[in-house]
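Researcher: I'd like a candidate sequence for this fold, 293 residues long. If you have to choose between options at a position, lean toward the conservative one.
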């Protein structure tokens, strides 16, 4: 593994959160503070008002020393984890690592991502791909895939993971302790993807996005991954996915909140679930900007 002292790029960690999760933030924040290559700053962006939680009393969470809280007037939904930072650091020579608030990140994660950034200065560096966007209406298949294309190691067919998982469940039952899902590899081969998923973390630069990224239509508000991926692609910045067999396991540990009732991937907005909303945003970029065609 590359030694931390050889990584010199400036980077800042940004994320957001929602009131029901304020009491569970510490493990996530501490994992970000404890990276082998420390961030210049760790910024938690919070809304002054939340459209999903209108009865919130305005009390901020307690955060570890080293974490800044910055208040945001506009509720961009899950994209609040990165959009305010694009304005705060516009024009600066700095990387921005944005991530979710319901994960515990591996201490060497940013060391590995910054290594990839040094080799690929114009790509969005990510851990989890979205690599299955459908062809535009009326086309049988897409023609804009970029190679080398990422190859995912699917959980459903990962026999080794399921054997370890079964042993962990049996061990937890025998020892009467909480079950903890074992680590697993997410990527078989590194490469480009259609889009990135932010829950494992993404490394970008402030100039990767045009001003239109702030104008989120109602149908795109709950699904920041496709929205942000599309606007980065518009400016020529493709998602490059790392974490293949040449890397240590980079997947974070998920907190219980990741699959809880406040999780956006389980929510329905305007009658549309996560998959429906993702598809609507893909169609928007195909029709408006000619992406993913």
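Model: Candidate sequence:
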């Amino acid at each position: 593994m590359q030694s931390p002292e050889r990584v010199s790029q400036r980077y800042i960690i940004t994320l957001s959160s929602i009131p029901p999760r304020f009491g569970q933030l510490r493990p996530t924040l501490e994992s970000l503070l404890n990276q082998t290559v420390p961030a210049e700053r760790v910024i938690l962006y919070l809304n002054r008002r939340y459209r999903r939680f209108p009865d919130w009393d305005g009390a901020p969470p307690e955060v570890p020393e080293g974490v800044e809280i910055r208040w945001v007037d506009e509720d961009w939904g899950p994209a609040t984890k990165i959009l305010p930072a694009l304005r705060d650091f516009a024009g600066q020579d700095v990387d921005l690592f944005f991530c979710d608030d319901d994960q515990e990140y591996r201490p060497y994660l940013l060391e590995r991502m910054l290594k990839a950034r040094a080799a690929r200065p114009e790509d969005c560096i990510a851990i989890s791909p979205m690599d299955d966007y459908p062809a535009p209406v009326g086309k049988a298949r897409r023609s804009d895939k970029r190679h080398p294309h990422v190859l995912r190691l699917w959980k459903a067919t990962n026999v080794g993971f399921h054997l370890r998982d079964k042993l962990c469940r049996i061990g937890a039952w025998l020892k009467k302790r909480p079950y903890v899902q074992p680590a697993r590899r997410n990527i078989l081969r590194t490469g480009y993807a259609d889009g990135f998923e932010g829950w494992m973390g993404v490394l970008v630069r402030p100039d990767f996005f045009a001003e239109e990224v702030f104008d989120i239509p109602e149908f795109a508000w709950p699904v920041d991954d496709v929205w942000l991926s599309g606007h980065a692609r518009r400016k020529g910045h493709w998602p490059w996915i790392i974490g293949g067999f040449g890397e240590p396991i980079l997947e974070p540990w998920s907190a219980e909140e990741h699959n809880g009732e406040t999780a956006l991937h389980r929510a329905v907005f305007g009658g549309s679930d996560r998959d429906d909303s993702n598809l609507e945003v893909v169609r928007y970029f195909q029709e408006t900007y000619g992406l993913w065609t």
